[in-house]
Amino acid sequence: MSVTVTIPATSANLGPGYDCLGLALGLTNRITFTEVAEPGLRITVTGTDAHKVATDETNLVYQCAQIVFDEVEQRPSGLHIHQENSIPVGSGLGSSSTAVLGGLLAANELVGRPFTRAEILQMAVAAEGHPDNVAPALYGGLILGIAGSEGLHIEHLPVAEMRVVVVLPDFHLLTSEARAALPAKVTIPDAVFNASRTPLLIRALETADYGKLTLAIQDKLHQPYRIPLIPGLAEAFAAAYAAGAAGVALSGAGPSLIAFAPSGHEAIGEVVTAVFAQHQLPSRTWILEIDRHGSRIQASGL
Question: In terms of CATH, what superfamily is 163-289?
Answer without folding.
Answer: GHMP kinase, C-terminal domain (3.30.70.890)
